[in-house]
Amino acid sequence: MEIYKALLEGNRKWVEEQLKEDPNYFNDLAKGQSPQVLWIGCSDSRVPANQITGTKPGEIFVHRNIANMVVHTDMNMLSVLDYAVNVLKVRHVIVCGHYGCGGVKAAMGSKQYGLIDNWLRNIKDVYRLYKDELEAIADEEQRFDRFVELNVIEQVFDLTKTSIIQNAWKSRNQPYVHGWVYSIQTGIIKDLKVSFDSTSKIPQIYRIDIPVIA
Ligand code: CO
């Protein structure tokens, strides 16, 4: 069967199963969403937010891009973040990377892939910041794994630098931001323990908490 037909068939079966378990399943979901979590993950097909966290539709608001990046000129990411933080009022924002990430791997090398090279440049900036630590790791796989982790940590920092997060911290002491890495090989998520919930832990130069507009 052609894959697109298989998808529609899969959908039909899924609807049947959901309704068998709970006849009101779709009626209830249609009433609205109030997820407590925003997930910023990689587009990689092997890292679906709901499945790997055992959550259901309605529980996680999701943004995905190549290598789970928080790029401050990305209107898509900023719009998702603003809506999640200020309208849905999520309690947690999680950046979840994954070992074996093709985007991070490509950023480690010198090959030209096309338009995406401009996106990968943001990851190369992370490499430059941690060059000494990374190049002290002799084993290439271990260096790659660490680079994946450091990239997540930097994206968490980048979240804390946004006016969206800092204003929310000021007005409601939330959301917590977290950095995780998922292992495709084991299915286990590692918490990198880089959680933030206030500007007090971020460098002074990035704090933008004093309004100048009267
Ligand atoms: Co990836």
Description:
The mean pLDDT is 96. The protein has 9 helices and 5 strands. It has 2 domains: 1-32, no CATH class; 34-200, Carbonic anhydrase (Beta-carbonic Anhydrase, Chain A). 47% of the residues lie in helices and 14% in strands. The radius of gyration is 19 Å and the shape is globular. By secondary structure, the protein is of the alpha/beta class. Strand 1 (37-42), helix 3 (49-53) and strand 2 form a beta-alpha-beta unit. The protein has helices spanning 3-21, 25-30, 49-53, 75-87, 102-108, 116-129, 131-135, 140-160, 163-172; strands at 37-42, 60-65, 92-98, 176-182, 189-191. The site of cobalt (II) ion (CO) has 7 residues, from helix 5. Residues 42, 44, 67, 98, 101-103 line the site of cobalt (II) ion.
Number of domains: 2
Strand content: 5-15%
Instruction: Report the principal-axis shape.
Output: globular
Q: Kindly report the average pLDDT value.
A: 96
**Helix-strand topology string:** HHEHEHEHHHHHEE
Bound molecules: cobalt (II) ion
CATH superfamily of the largest domain: Carbonic anhydrase
Question: Total helix count?
Answer: 9
> Gap between N and C termini, in Å?
63 Å
Rg: 19 Å
Low-confidence stretches: none
Work out the helicity level: 40-55%
